[in-house]
């Protein structure tokens, strides 16, 4: 069993593990319980009433957090010609076609998100094993395979995140940093939950939002009431 340090044990005392808090109170407690010397990420864990083994109950999508994630995303765009120029103008960190594909094949991964125009996917698809294993493969459902590369880059830079159901039926997603004020974290959390509610599969039966918890990178979690989001 993992041993926790003195600071963590003190932080745990701030949050009642058996209690369920209103969203605003939960994020305040998580901020108070964050004791690391770096600006910790605040993450939401949402348990959904779906069967992750069934394709018709898959939950996956994107949402632009109103206050961003607090992390600067490095965006790579696979595009040619005018679309490459559009991507550069929109603020993409890296733009190219075969040259970028070659770099990745040689082990370069100095980026966080990939965007590709549809006409590039036949070549980018050859990187499936390399990009897919890191969750970096461009995907139409995530809005990262598109001819509107400028919009894609701008949304990612503004705080767009992708969410995806895991094998345990949960969604894990960042909603900001401990340095954000509680109102910003609360609004980002609401944006995420609203997006998940909109993404509810038609095949899902019974209670959909089963549980929500928020925590910082190194701190304890606080359970959040789901009532206000139903």
From TrEMBL:
Q: What is the lineage of its organism?
A: Bacteria, Bacillati, Bacillota, Bacilli, Bacillales
Keyword entries, A-Z: Repressor, Ribonucleoprotein, Ribosomal protein, RNA-binding, rRNA-binding, Translation regulation, tRNA-binding
Question: What GO cellular-component annotations does this UniProt entry give?
Answer: large ribosomal subunit
Q: Which InterPro entries match?
A: Ribosom_uL1_bac-type (IPR005878), Ribosomal_uL1 (IPR002143), Ribosomal_uL1-like (IPR023674), Ribosomal_uL1/biogenesis (IPR028364), Ribosomal_uL1_3-a/b-sand (IPR016095)
Annotated source species? Paenibacillus durus ATCC 35681
Annotated Gene Ontology MF terms?
A: rRNA binding; structural constituent of ribosome; tRNA binding
Q: Which Gene3D superfamilies match?
A: 3.30.190.20, 3.40.50.790
UniProt-recorded name of the protein = Large ribosomal subunit protein uL1
Concerning its family, UniProt says:
Belongs to the universal ribosomal protein uL1 family.
